[in-house]
Design a protein that fits this description.
This protein has 325 residues and is an alpha+beta fold. The chain has 6 helices and 20 strands. A hairpin with a 3-residue loop joins strand 6 (57-62) and strand 7.
């Protein structure tokens, strides 16, 4: 239902992008700016994990109950994609503090500057993720990709109640089911065939993983920053699922509703809706991330058509509550 890539430019910088594929076009998504110094908690359970945000960030909300994409002032990016096989374990049995899956991505961009730091912090598993049902009745099951300005990357999945981490810059692509180790095996098979000869063409996640891996390896590493961003957008548009398209036999497959592109080096966060005619972006240098600053919100599908740099369009807002709170 979703696709994430990490692209290397010709100057050795990196750009991360994700497309959000979802079967509920009414799913609310807006952009939020969160300053550093916010007192946070996991939002669920009798003993939620607590923290104070070290870094300011920009994020995309989902149903105004979860963060599914975020980039902090250090350039760490988190993207949460659907994974039906997810199993976070029984919070009552682990005895650890709890964290709503809605806060999962935000926890990382609030607390860590790099992928390596994030992975190290998870060795002792400081919390148990709790995943309530989404507003549309589906399970809130997801895995997460992390990336940073150095090109490092990690994929985090909870399988059979245990956290599995794939860590390394080679992990540049993520889609959905099956689990990441199986996706890598399938992609290795198709690499033997060679994308110039044949590529799988359905809209299911395994086929998209193979195709976008081929796109990513075949695309030039542009030195011009404008062309680099354009290349990433073109790859994400090429892998998107057309509006209204679905597969009755595979209800997890859905149309692409929006795309984000995060330029780690420029600290620029782009957004493109599938139903609006223009791309807009936010430069993190132009928003106030200082402690005590207002939380700010931008409606992506409001009455005004957004284009270009839009930091001035944000308005103060109360932070939303995490899923299940």
């Amino acid at each position: 239902m979703c696709t994430r890539i990490k692209y290397e430019t010709g100057t050795g910088t990196y750009i991360t992008a994700r497309g959000m594929d979802w079967n509920d076009p009414t799913a609310t998504t807006n952009l939020w700016v969160f300053p550093k110094g916010m007192e946070r908690d996991g939002g669920i359970g009798e003993s939620p994990v607590k923290w104070t945000s070290k870094y300011g960030s920009i994020a995309t909300s989902f149903y105004e109950a979860a963060v599914v994409d975020g980039m902090n002032e250090k350039g760490l990016v988190a993207n949460v994609l659907y994974l039906v096989e997810s199993d976070y374990g029984d919070a009552a049995k682990t005895g650890r503090p709890t964290l709503s899956i809605g806060a999962w991505a935000q926890y990382f961009v609030d607390n860590f500057a790099t992928v390596a730091e994030s992975v190290e912090a998870m060795k002792d598993e400081p919390f148990t993720v709790v995943a309530p049902v989404l507003p549309n009745g589906r399970a809130a099951a997801g895995h997460m990709a992390l990336s940073d300005p150095s090109g490092d990357s990690a994929i985090l999945e909870y399988l059979d109640g245990k956290l599995v981490i794939h860590h390394g810059p080679e992990h540049a692509v993520m889609t959905n089911s099956p689990t990441y180790d199986q996706q890598l095996a399938l992609n290795a098979y198709w690499e033997l065939i060679g994308g110039n000869n044949m590529l799988p063409g359905t809209i299911n996640a395994a086929d998209r993983f193979v195709r976008v891996s081929y796109f990513l390896k075949s695309s030039p590493k542009y030195k011009d920053p404008v062309m680099a961003v354009a290349s990433v957008f073109s790859q994400m548009r090429a892998i998107g699922v057309p509006l209204g398209m679905e597969d009755p036999d595979h209800p997890n497959i859905s149309a692409t509703l929006w795309r984000i592109v995060a330029d780690h080096d420029a600290r620029r966060f782009y957004y493109e809706s599938a139903i609006r005619p223009s791309v807009f972006w936010v430069d993190l240098d132009k928003v106030n991330l200082d402690p005590g600053a207002d939380v700010m919100k931008l409606e992506t599908l409001g009455s005004k058509i957004l284009a270009g740099e839009v930091s001035a369009e944000f308005e103060p807002a109360e932070p939303f509550k995490w899923l299940g709170a």
